[in-house]
Amino acid sequence: MPKGDETKADASRNGVDAGASAGSVSQQHQLFEQIEQSSVPSLNFYFMLGMATAIASFGLLSNSAPAIIGAMIVAPLMSPIIGFSFAAITGAHKLAVQSLTSILTGILLVVGIAYFCTEVLGLRVVGSEILARTAPSTLDMLVALCSGAAAAFAHARPGIASYIAGVAIAVALVPPLSVVGIGLALGNDAVSAQAIAMSDLHHQGNGNSMAAGALLLFVTNFLGIVAAAMLIFGLQGYGSWRKPVVVAVALMMASYFVVDKLDRRLEIIFVEDLVKRLYVQAVNEGSDIVSEDSYVWQVRGERVGGQLSVSVVLLGLRANLDRVKETSERFRELISAELGEEVTLRLEIIPISVIFHEAKPPEAPAE
Question: Nearest-CA neighbor of 185 among 253, 130, 118?
């Protein structure tokens, strides 16, 4: 067989389009080897992933954003996900198996280390950094899609490979999995930053529900990255559209269930935003619905039996407690009018006492 034909045949076996030019085949082989090397399960992969998990776990438990960002940079979990995407679009079965092995064993490693760190430290207070990764929405899917596209483009263009670290920060992979381990370790012992049991706060649940939400965030990120990376690799001429059909169908089926949950969460985000804006608007307009001495502490929303239920927790003056019933009904009507549907409003007011004191500079002595 002529040398050129051998090159094309070898390229075809590795999932590279044999119809490409010799220079293009060489470039695709180089990319294939680079992705394969970073996707294979190895001591380097597991050690770096383990250290990233420890950093993320300590950062999450201490509510330290810089530590969590550092863990995102160190974590190598993005590489096998990109490797799986490349294998799916090119039909490289061996690479797909290696990448999936790295991903699945990596997930178990991260969850296990996070669980262990939580048990050893004995911390039970859940901060904002943990809660931020327990309720994903469609916005997180959009972030994952953009990140997957950027990662695939950066891998295919050696000149901009330095941007991959930034992509790892944009889409969190290890922190959500760490929250899964933390949530499983906490269970019913999770305590909020306000020193209240998580199970006592409305719609917060406990450690297990937080773990489920964090796992949903990871699955969202995984599906978004794979789908976008396959698209970008395909647009750049890698592989054939026939090979990843099965993978694409599986992703679409999985995304159906995920997107449904994400859409519901996005709706709640808009509802919470609306309630807070209406509250501020009512205060600014001097409405007797609310008092300027009351403050929104928490807004939660969910659909129960198809009807939207909104819970609002206010910090309010004791003097206004006699208006709770009237305030609840009028505010409910205002929210329903804005949303165009009837809602159920649960208004809770935590009584507070506000003390005003004005300190003035001493008067100048008379001459």
Answer: 118
